[in-house]
Design goal:
The chain is of the alpha/beta class and 368 residues long. The chain has ten helices and 16 strands.
């Protein structure tokens, strides 16, 4: 039986490249909606795919709120018709002006961003007032990842109070990303979520008790989105779920998503009788994770030996079964940074790589 992922025209497709399977993407979107309790509860992260065609697929599924990390991702999403976009990366320096320009260029799109610093709040306010715009802001909270945000304590309450009193901006609520929380044991993960977010719920209640507006709450990474969606009024931001990879599968087995993105690679050399060299270097598959960085289908026993810019050498007793030029399919450990390495990918329809999709938002700048 032919494996689901093989394509009939592999001999025509240059490698290394990414293959995307739209039918599987659509099934993953439906599963995301099911786990979140409705499309309106989702604010999926665009950084996973950076593709306008997938924005269109999300909108067709009823999802029209998006989360992005860069101005380029925001521009691509707005151009693709996204009507509600959160820049989940506190803008500083020239990026503040770029965000203002984005708001001017797409007046029908609701843009929002994050703030966790009083000085930057002043800079955002000044820019909005200078441009005659109103900027939607969420207070970014640190719930233990210690990457961005302010700890949800009295200082956070004071900053939110200041936010509510600052001209040129509107306080839209709270944002908390919990990317450090993951565990394949759902009970352990649920307890970790409860512990991390207890101060967040307390802060929200305190702010509302003061009479301050807290209209929205945006939270979660991929492992926790189904748990946090159980809380009323919380939008959840799963991202990897749309394409999936074997790294997320290991820590989120209960999500039951489908692998919808594979790497297509070729054997370019056989340097020893038990080694294969593939054209799948650092520039084709994300290398920030430990090995194995890719699960080679049909060569699951292969052991990585060396990994460099354009080459991946693996050791396997099955090397004699392969010839130079043979194609191999692989599942990346981490799909998000892998997508950013490719300027274009192929959409597979009816067993053939049928369409080339430009990965528009891998660029740091599109036009703005």
């Amino acid at each position: 039986m032919t494996p689901w992922y093989t394509i009939a025209n592999a001999d025509q497709i240059p490698t290394p490249t990414v293959l995307l399977y739209p039918d599987r993407i659509e099934r993953n979107l439906q599963r995301m909606i099911e786990l979140a309790g409705g499309a309106e509860r989702l604010r999926p992260h665009v950084k996973t795919h950076k593709l306008a065609p997938i924005i269109a697929m999300k909108r067709a599924a009823g999802i029209d709120r998006f989360k992005v990390s860069t101005i380029a991702e925001a521009e691509m999403t707005a151009e693709a018709g996204g009507s509600d976009i959160l820049l989940a990366h506190q803008p500083t320096g020239p990026n503040i002006g770029r965000l203002m320009e984005l708001m001017r260029r797409y007046p029908r799109t609701r843009f929002a961003t994050l703030v966790d610093d009083a000085g930057n709040l002043s800079a955002l306010s000044a820019a909005a007032l200078q441009q005659g715009l109103i900027l939607n802001l969420y207070l970014d909270l640190n719930v233990g990842m210690n990457r961005t945000g302010i700890v949800p304590d009295d200082a956070a309450r004071a900053l939110y109070r200041t936010l509510c009193q600052t001209p040129g901006v509107v306080a839209c609520g709270l944002h908390a990303y919990d990317g450090h929380l993951h565990n394949p044991d759902s009970g352990v993960l649920a307890q970790a979520v409860d512990d991390a977010f207890a101060p967040v719920w307390a802060l929200r209640d305190q702010l509302r008790a003061e009479g301050l507006p807290v209209p929205g709450m945006i939270a979660s990474g991929t492992p926790t989105f189904a748990l946090l969606a159980q809380h009323e009024g919380v939008e959840v931001g799963a991202g990897t779920t749309v394409l999936w990879d074997f790294g997320q599968e290991a820590i989120c087995p209960e999500h039951r998503m489908l692998n919808a993105a594979l790497l297509l690679t070729r054997i370019i050399s056989k340097p020893t009788p038990d080694r294969l060299c593939l054209d799948l270097g650092h520039k084709a598959v994300a290398s920030e994770m430990p090995h194995p960085r890719v699960r080679l289908l049909g060569l699951e026993d292969a052991v990585p030996v060396t990994h460099s810019e354009e080459h991946l050498v693996v050791q396997t007793p099955r090397a004699t079964e392969y010839r130079v030029g043979d194609v191999v399919y692989g599942i990346p450990r981490h799909i998000c940074p892998t997508m950013a390495l490719h300027s274009e990918v192929w959409a597979v329809r009816d067993g053939r790589a049928a369409e080339r999709w430009t990965v528009t938002a891998r660029a740091r700048r599109i036009t703005i």
